[in-house]
Amino acid sequence: MQPQDPTLLTRASDWARHSVTLKLLSIGILLLLLLIPSSMVENLITERASNRDAATEEISAQWGGAQLVLGPVLVLPYTAQETNEDKRTTEVTRYVCVLPDTLSSTGTLAPERRHRGIYEAVVYRANMHV
């Protein structure tokens, strides 16, 4: 015959099985433990993005920076007389830049993919006619 009074082990087992507090506490502990791999993945993503940016910068530095295509500019020097605060007159050389009213230019732009390790950057080759 078994005693009617449950043992301490049985009562603890029943309490653990039905306790909402224990379940919430275990969920909280699991959440905290899962934050560790989550932060590790986030650090890896940040590191890879930094490496990608560095590779793109390196490729761009070797290829060349931004280019500006301009037409002809006529620079004409002229002298002007200025009076300063002491009422002295001095001659100053200045320049005026004259640009054309119309400018015709044609060209082709060809993208090229360059690789540095596992990273890739697109650079452009242009053939311009002004």
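The above is record 1. Record 2 follows with the same two-line structure.
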Amino acid sequence: MVAPELTDRFLAEEAVYNYWQAIINRQYGLAECFCIYDGIWDNKIDEWEEYINIHSEDPCSFLIIYFDEFYKPTEVTGDTAVVYVRIIADKIVVPCNSNLHKKMDGSDI
């Protein structure tokens, strides 16, 4: 197996991927390591944390966020990279009296 070439495009995509994995896993401090200090996405971390917390409070729903794909080639010009990525957030609501909800609340443990 040959290691991937560490091109600017590869490094930019890896940073974006790692940022979103940290957000998805609620590792907000780690997400900061993958953005430009005080940049747009650094400042969005608090917004994502609030969004995730608000949409995770309901015991009868599940918030699923996942990294879907890079949907367009990354553009690198000088020291600037534009990475096109699709992130999907789904909130799934289940009836509170359903068997699925009873299994997820931990009461059967």
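The chain has one domain: 8-104.
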